[in-house]
Amino acid sequence: MNIAILGATGNFGIALTSKLLAYTDHNLTLISRNAGNKFEDNYRIKSKSIDASNNIRDLNKALENQDLVYCAISGDFIPVIADNIINCHPKRLIFMATVGIYNELENASHLNVDNEQLQIPNQYAVDLIENSDVDYTIFRLGLMDYGDEDDYVITKKGESVKTHNTTVESVIKIALEIIDNPELYSRESISITKKE
């Protein structure tokens, strides 16, 4: 399988890349603004230094023949990046967003989009993806830290979420499950947060 990771030089991108290299035989295209400075190309890795917010031509070329695209980018420009990804017509997309974009948080309601303006770009990006024809899975994640891969609860859109922390390992575990079974959580938005 050919997998592209956008935001490959971030903390999560590096962790996901390491896991995929160690435990799978998938080919990886690692994309970020400075990916060429971080990764060396080899028989399984192609690094692409691309700004996904304003270089759609190179992004489209990098995403050709990819079986799955994982977007691990955050920030104010994320709606633009989401739109650029949609216009590249990926076969399968996993898109990282944040819990609270549907006002679903119970115990940390100050992080819900109605109370936290920083959530607005995430909400808009997810809205673009959900209204596209892309085969997506949205990961809504809390504050991320390292921990137990089995310390998680999955909730679907429309369900309330009780916690607002997430382990890196649990997200990687669910991502690998989708890579192995692309129909899993197809066109769904799920939160992955720690157990109470």
Shape: globular
The tally of beta strands, per DSSP, is 10
Distance between the termini: 36 Å
Largest sheet: 8 strands, mixed
- How large is the share of residues in beta strands? 15-25%
Number of helices: 6
Structural class: alpha/beta
Q: Which whole number gives the mean pLDDT?
A: 95
- Helix coverage percent: 25-40%
Structure description:
By secondary structure, this protein is of the alpha/beta class. 30% of the residues lie in helices and 24% in strands. It contains six helices and ten strands. The strands form two sheets. Strands 3-2-1-4-5-6-10-8 form an eight-stranded mixed β-sheet, with helices on both faces. Helix 4 packs parallel to helix 5. The longest helix has 13 residues, at 11-23. The protein is globular, with a radius of gyration of 16 Å.
Describe the structure using short key phrases.
30% helix; 196 residues; two-stranded parallel sheet; 24% strand; alpha/beta; 8-stranded mixed sheet
Write the layout of secondary structure elements.
Blueprint: E1 2-6, H1 11-23, E2 27-32, H2 35-38, E3 45-49, H3 56-62, E4 68-71, H4 78-87, E5 93-98, H5 120-130, E6 136-141, E7 143-145, E8 153-156, E9 165-167, H6 168-180, E10 188-193
TL;DR?
The protein is of the alpha/beta class. The protein is built from six helices and ten strands; from the N terminus they run βαβαβαβαβαββββαβ.
